[in-house]
């Protein structure tokens, strides 16, 4: 399981990525994150991020009937959300590269472990 402090900065971009693949709702986002190995991330964690993404006009919502209860809000990316996702991916690649270099010791001669 990934520690929650490490997840906080990444979840927004990961949620944008999930929504980019298909219109989806909060519970389904939680399920997909779990299937990708993020552990159990509650809807209580996801909803504030979704609200922030909506407020910042990165996603939009549509109410639809559900087969199993009340209507659900389905989310999709806006053009601003697509731009944010592209920026997140670029930043992630740079961060991933830097951390891997550090952990492998590529830029220095000192090895601690």
TrEMBL record:
Residues 15-84 form the Transcription regulator PadR N-terminal domain. InterPro entries: Metal_resp_DNA-bind_regulator (IPR052509), Tscrpt_reg_PadR_N (IPR005149), WH-like_DNA-bd_sf (IPR036388), WH_DNA-bd_sf (IPR036390). Gene3D superfamilies: Winged helix-like DNA-binding domain superfamily/Winged helix DNA-binding domain. It comes from the Bacteria. SUPFAM superfamilies: Winged helix' DNA-binding domain. PANTHER family: DNA-BINDING PROTEIN YIZB-RELATED, PADR-FAMILY TRANSCRIPTIONAL REGULATOR. This is Transcriptional regulator PadR-like family protein. It comes from Clostridium liquoris.
């Amino acid at each position: 399981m990934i520690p929650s402090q490490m997840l906080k900065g990444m979840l927004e971009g990961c949620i944008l990525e999930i929504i980019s693949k298909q219109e989806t709702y909060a519970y389904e986002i939680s399920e997909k994150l779990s299937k990708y190995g993020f552990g159990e991330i509650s809807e209580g964690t996801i909803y504030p991020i979704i609200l922030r993404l909506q407020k910042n006009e990165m996603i939009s919502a549509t109410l639809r009937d559900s087969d199993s209860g009340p209507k659900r809000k389905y989310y999709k990316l806006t053009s601003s959300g697509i731009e944010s996702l592209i920026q997140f991916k670029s930043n992630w690649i740079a961060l991933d590269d830097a951390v891997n270099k550090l952990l492998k010791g590529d830029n220095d001669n000192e090895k601690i472990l």
